[in-house]
Structures are given as structure tokens and as C-alpha cells.
Amino acid sequence: MKDEKQRSDTELLLAARTCSEPFGVFYEWHFASVLAFFRRRVPGPEEAFDLAAETFAAALASLSRFEPGPEPPQAWLFAVARHKLSEARRSSRVQDEARRALAMQPIHLDDEAIEILEATAQTPAIELLATLAPEQRNAVKAHHLEERGYSDIATEVRRSESVIRKRVSRGLAALHAQLQEGETS
Amino acid sequence: MSDPVSDLKRELLAAAERQLEHAALGSAGVARTNRRRWLERSHVQGGRRRRLVVLAAAALLVVVATTSAFATRALLVNQGIIGLAPVGATPSTPERGELVLEFTFGHTMGDPGRFRVLMYADGRLIQERIGDATTSINAELVRACERHLDRPPRATSHA
């Protein structure tokens, strides 16, 4: 499954050299994870969105330099993202050279847009929930999304509170590991 | 409804289109530049070739002019009738006649076999060996010779 996805990413980036649409598909597949990457590292959703936009603009501008290799295209994209993040931290502001070079118009964010961004930034983690074992997924979902207490959940599933705590803890650790893998692979 | 994710995608796609157009124009520009450079190179090569031709022509002109100058000098100054008329030779008469044909024959400047022929209306044909009398090897063997078209040839002291 991962190999197929990786091959598809590579095909999209190579096809994007001669046609604009494949890059749109690549953007749709990876925007949420890139936005989530930044959202966990910068204080506000506006900065996270600007960094994500700058990352995709820089990726678009450097499509001709993309070379398929053993590393998945996602690693190339996150390398660009990390570079943009370090640039922003060094200069204390989000750079916009790539967007300016591509003559991209700035996107103004209102409250509604920020809500969408915040929800989108959570999407990768929610999608990853499906990869957890059912008891871990249910425990994490009940405690963190439904904001129920450990004792309440334990009563419902007829397990001890310590068992529920362990399930939540292991589920979060697995999610964290998968997120780290996605960003570093 | 404002959707920044869709807005950004739209901006990226538009930028991708512009980038592709720019790349296409860039390729065409490179082709034009290459063609122009090829033409410029051709012009340079043509100019170089033209310069070589001009130089060769100039060199040839110098050689020809020098050769012609030497030839003219040799013909006008150094050259004349080689040898003397034999002792007792009868001067050609009349001293002045109507010249109807004159020509000079020779292969090269150093050709010892060059001669000039003068033909007069009364039938006299004066043949002269011409060249540099001081350097001609067979100078002593050569002389002016008068013939009559209706008589056997005889040596003459034609002036």
C-alpha cells in the first residue's frame, strides 16, 4: 500500500512537469499533513497556513529538480517544509519568496477560514486513528475527541481505569510514531 | 464561503500553468538563441573565410604585381635582342616598312626560347630572340633572323 502510494506520488510529480493538474492532486493528498506539521510547531494557524503555502509553492518551483529515488516524494516535500520552518525561525517571519516568484496572490484568512484550517490540521491524526487497534482507537477517541473521563470509559467497556489509561497512552504513542514516520520518511 | 485550502490550490494551479507557459517560452527562446548564435557563428566563420579570401587575393595580387613588375622591367629594361648579327650580314631593307603583324612568344620569364616576330607588308619576316643578353646561356647562338616568305631565311642586322 505504501509502495503504491509512493509510486503514485512520484508519478504525480513527474507528470506535473508537463501538466498542472497532477500537482493539484499531490497538493490535495499532502496539504493536511504539511499543515499539521507546521501547526504543531508554530503558535497560530495563520503562520502554519502561510508556511504550508510557501512549502507547496517552493515544491512547485523546484519540480524540475525533483529526482525519483529510494526516498518517497513525501520526504522531499517535508524537507522543503523543514527548510521553510528553519528560515521562518531564523528571520522571525514567514518568508514568501516562492509565492512571490510564482506571482501567487495572498490568501486572506477570516474566522471561518481559520476554523477550516484548524480542522484540516487535525485530519491526519484522525485518519491515523483508523490504523490503531480497535480498543486503542476507541479509547483515544472517547477520551480526547469526546472528552470523556477514564472512569466513564472504563465503566462503559467494563474494564479497569488503568487498562483504559494504558490503551489511550499506547494509542497516542502509536499515533505519534506514525506522524513522526510520515514527516521524516 | 471562504475555503483557504481550495483557494491555495487554485493559486497553485494557476502558478503551475504560468510556470509551464514560461518553461515553453523559455525553450523556444533557447532555440531562438541557439539559432541566432549559430547564425552569429556562421557570420563569424563567413567573415573569417572572407578575410582569408581577401588575404589570399591580396597576397596573389602582390605576387602578380611583383612578377609583373619584374617582367615589365625585364622586358623594357633588361631585355632586348640577344646576340649580334653575324659578321657580313646585310642590313634589312628597306629600313622602314609597313608592319602588318607583330607578336611575342614565350613560356616564362626565364625561357631562353622567347622570340618576337615582326612581319612587314613586303613579305619580310623578322624573328628576334629576346631576353637578358647578360644572363642568357645560349646568347651567342641566338640572333636576329630575317626571312622572306618567298625566300630561304638569312641572318640580318635588323634594327
Short description:
Chain A is 74% helix and 0% strand.
Fold and architecture overview:
The complex is a heterodimer of chains A (185) and B (159). Chain A is mostly helical and 185 residues long. Helix content of chain A is 74%, strand content 0%. Chain A folds into two domains: 1-121, RNA polymerase sigma factor, region 2, helix turn helix motif (Rna Polymerase Sigma Factor, Chain: A, Orthogonal Bundle); 130-185, Winged helix-like DNA-binding domain superfamily/Winged helix DNA-binding domain (Arc Repressor Mutant, subunit A, Orthogonal Bundle), CATH 1.10.10. Chain A is built from nine helices and no strands. Chain B is α+β, with helices and mostly antiparallel strands. Chain B is 47% helix and 19% strand. In chain B, a hairpin with a 5-residue loop joins strand 5 and strand 6 (154-155). The chains are: A mainly alpha (185), B alpha+beta (159). The A-B interface holds A 16, 18-21, 23-24, 27-28, 31, 49, 52-53, 56-57, 60-61, 63-64, 102-105, 107, 109-110, 112-113, 116-117, 120 and B 1-5, 7-9, 11-20, 23.
CATH architectural name of the largest domain in chain A: Orthogonal Bundle
Rounded to the nearest angstrom, the radius of gyration of chain B is 40 Å
Head-to-tail CA distance between termini of chain A? 15 Å
- In which range does the helix fraction of chain A lie? over 70%
Reported for the largest beta sheet of chain B, the result is:
6 strands, antiparallel
The number of E-state strands of chain B comes to: 6
- Arithmetic mean pLDDT of chain B: 69
> Please, how many domains of chain A?
2
Could you name the ranges of chain B where pLDDT drops below 50 across 5 or more consecutive residues? Answer: 38-42
- Give the N-to-C terminal Cα separation of chain B: 124 Å
> What is the 3D form of chain A?
elongated
Helix content of chain B: 40-55%
Number of domains of chain B: 2
Mean pLDDT of chain A: 86
Amount of beta strand of chain A: under 5%
Whole-angstrom Rg of chain A: 19 Å
Indicate the proportion of strand residues of chain B. Answer: 15-25%
Question: SSE string of chain B, helix = H, strand = E?
Answer: HEEEEEE
The DSSP helix count of chain A reads 9
